[in-house]
Design goal:
The complex is a heterodimer of chains A (355) and B (333). Helices cover 34% and strands 15% of the residues of chain A. Chain A has 355 residues and is an alpha/beta fold. The longest helix of chain A is centred in the middle third of the chain and has 24 residues, at 208-231. In chain B, β6 and β7 form a beta hairpin. The radius of gyration of chain B is 21 Å and the shape is globular. The chains are: A alpha/beta (355), B alpha/beta (333).
């Protein structure tokens, strides 16, 4: 079953996990990973958590290796995992978020995890992405050389969303690989709300306005990352961030090496993000937001949105008032249809549905 | 260096009749290939200048303008080693020098127009380079991002930015957004608003297409077959398609952007409304009904009033400019 018993090969497998302030998730997932028989290494990167992860808090599995990156102000999945991939020792990589673990069904050597290759003359390759709900799509098993052939994750993407889809698209375009799906039952994932994913506390995400805030922030980063991927495609020749080791196991980025989008692209993305967040959170159409004073609807700072008391006041008053006629129209049409189906029947899914 | 000028035209014969004689007066090209992309009134050779270098081809059966597929077809049919992609509303000025070293990158012609009025869509490029990146991205439709996407992919291959064609080397007939989007030339603020909404929807959709389905040399292009009468036609099933899930996401974003911009209804409310009230485009055209126009003239204006008042607030212009401006995406095609 496992790699060491033959199957798809004798490749060494590294499970790679990056964690920033998600210690509670890791404390659940790491012991479950430590019980697995088929990996050679579980590399955990602590991405500048406020309270540094301590080796003694993690399972005493000798395969588990803890590395810390200092000085990162915010979560950056793409840079964090590219750093981790570069430090992992296996020829096979299982990228596993801190809130995920393989179930007993998971078989990393299974033939069904082999990708469909546009060039059938090539040797079969292991490359599969998670399928199903709750963040499973962000977990993947891949041969290291494939990851290197596309340059890993696009380091210009920030926040949440599209990192995995961008990688999938480039595996197809740049090297002609269509990854297989990892069956849903092979992965277990801790559920999150949008508010939690958007780096707000779980408690904050309980109120309706906070949920709306979380959803607006997610939509903004999802759009931003799509625009960045379109304007700044990533590839094997893209310059990734470089890090230096300050002490054994403690790394820090060389600030000048962090890639940034060109000025015009950054301006377009910032504008789109600002319109999306405030447009969604306050339900003010973009065409009006554009002519309103900039300082009333500022861009995000280090990934956070500066929601002031007057924004909240509008959310609880004007926004609700504007929604009334919409609800009336929807209700009237439902009545007219004899209450058949919902108002969304036949509608396209909201863009917030995918990452 | 043999140079082919390629021009594709769909229902823009009035532009071509202005530009083609100017192109025919140029001394430096070997061929001017004009492709009639299923214009409702077919272009006739006798309408065009009697320049023996001018060659007219027609593609039958296309319902909508599709710049990327149309120009990929045209470049494939052209014969020159260097291509000047020139829209029907553009022509080179007397200053244009296709052999100028300033239009070369790494010893090969590769330059994009600079300046306003659609100049950025005019491109001089070595055929080999164009083919190396797979040409235009055939999944893009409507207007916008086609040239930027090509430029981005050329930059990746060259490891440096393509050159710029000076603004005064190209002449262009100016258009409004409404004209570019649907051919309407008047109709006041409502038509202008509809044109802007159409352009924004198309620009965003094309960016999303590129993000989800990047183009490259291995991409499958549309194929065409020559019919008995000499015209060309798309081979059924050869046109590349987006995956269903991606197409759904992009159709949704396009629909939300158009109606949100045109009716000034935030997309979170639009998402709650029945699709038949805010429907997707049909054959590339947005089905604007009388109730949309009624809302545009009444509710939209009413909602606009408070934001107009607030926009008089100080600091808007300065910060607006800093942010890339309200029309950031508009200026950026």
């Amino acid at each position: 079953m496992g790699l060491k018993q033959g199957g798809a090969g004798q490749s060494r497998l590294s499970v790679v996990t990056v964690c920033m302030n998600r210690r509670d998730h890791l404390w659940r997932s790491a012991p479950l990973v430590a019980q697995l028989p088929w990996h050679d290494e579980h590399l955990i990167v602590d991405w500048s958590s406020r309270d540094p992860l301590r080796r003694e808090d993690l399972p005493p599995d000798p395969r588990l290796r803890l590395v810390r990156v200092e000085g990162e102000g915010r979560w950056n999945l793409c840079r964090a995992y590219n750093f981790a991939f570069a430090r992992a020792r296996g020829e096979l990589i299982l990228k596993l978020d801190a809130d995920a673990w393989p179930t007993e069904h998971f078989d990393p050597a299974a033939a069904q995890l082999q990708a469909v290759d546009d060039d059938p003359s090539r040797q079969p390759v292991l490359c599969a992405f998670g399928s199903g709900p709750e963040g499973r799509k962000g977990q993947f098993l891949i041969e290291r050389r494939l990851l290197e052939a596309v340059g890993g994750f696009n380091e210009l993407l920030v926040g949440y969303g599209f990192d995995d889809k961008d990688l999938l698209a480039r595996l197809g375009t740049q090297i002609g690989i269509q990854p297989a799906p990892i069956p849903e039952a092979w992965l277990a994932v801790i559920a999150h709300s949008d508010g939690e994913r958007a780096e707000r506390g779980p408690g904050e995400a309980s109120a309706t306005s906070a949920r709306s805030h979380g959803e607006a922030a997610m939509r903004a980063t999802r759009l931003a990352n799509r625009l960045l991927a379109a304007h700044c495609p990533w590839g094997p020749r893209s310059r990734a961030s470089r890090y230096h080791q300050e002490h054994p196991g403690r790394w820090r980025v060389e600030p000048d090496s962090v890639p940034h989008p060109p000025g015009a692209v950054a301006a377009e993305v910032e504008h789109a993000c600002r319109m999306t967040f405030w447009g969604h959170f306050l339900a003010i159409p973009e065409v009006f937001l554009e002519v309103l004073p900039y300082r009333l609807f500022p861009p995000s700072q280090r990934g956070g949105w500066d929601v002031r008391p007057w924004h909240r006041l509008w959310w609880h008053t004007g926004r609700q008032l504007l929604q009334l006629p919409v609800r009336l129209v929807v209700g009237a049409m439902e009545l007219a249809r004899g209450r058949q189906g919902s108002s969304r029947a036949g509608g396209g899914g909201a863009p917030g549905a995918g990452s | 260096m043999s140079l082919s000028i390629v021009t594709v035209c769909m229902n823009r014969s009035h532009h071509l009749l202005q530009s083609a004689p100017r192109v025919a007066a140029l001394p430096w090209h070997r061929e001017h290939l004009v492709v009639d992309w299923s214009s409702s009134q077919p272009l006739r050779r006798e309408q065009l200048p009697p320049d023996p270098r001018l060659r007219l081809l027609r593609v039958e059966g296309e319902q909508e303008w599709n710049l990327c597929r149309a120009y990929n077809f045209a470049v494939a049919q052209s014969r020159g080693e260097v291509i000047l992609k020139l829209d029907a509303d553009a022509w080179p000025s007397a200053r244009f020098d296709p052999g100028a070293p300033q239009l070369e990158v790494a010893g090969r012609p590769c330059a994009f127009g600079s300046g306003g009025e659609g100049r950025k869509g005019q491109i001089l490029v070595a055929r080999a380079l164009f083919e190396t990146v797979g040409g235009f991205h055939e999944l893009l439709v409507g207007y916008g991002f086609d040239d930027k996407d090509l430029r981005i992919r050329l930059t990746q291959v060259l490891a440096q930015e393509p050159a710029w064609i000076p603004a005064d080397w190209l002449e262009l007939i100016s258009h409004t957004d409404a004209e570019r989007a649907g051919g309407q030339t008047d109709g006041g603020a409502l038509v202008a608003s509809q044109g802007l909404a159409t352009m924004r929807a198309s620009r965003l959709a094309n960016r999303l297409v590129v993000a989800h389905a990047p183009w490259g040399p291995g991409a499958r292009h549309s194929c065409y077959v020559r019919e008995a009468g000499g015209a060309w036609r798309l081979v059924g099933g050869s046109r590349p398609q987006l995956g269903a899930e991606i197409a759904d996401e992009i159709d949704h974003a396009r629909r939300m952007t158009f109606w949100s911009c045109f009716l000034a209804i935030p997309d979170i409310f639009l998402e709650e409304l029945p699709v038949k009230l805010v429907p997707p485009p049909r054959s590339g055209q947005w089905p604007v009904g009388w109730w949309h126009r009624l809302w545009w003239h009444s509710g939209r204006r009413l909602l606009h009033a408070p934001s107009l008042l607030l926009s008089l607030g100080r600091g808007r212009l300065a910060r607006g400019c800093h942010s890339g401006g309200p029309g950031c995406l508009d200026q950026g095609r």
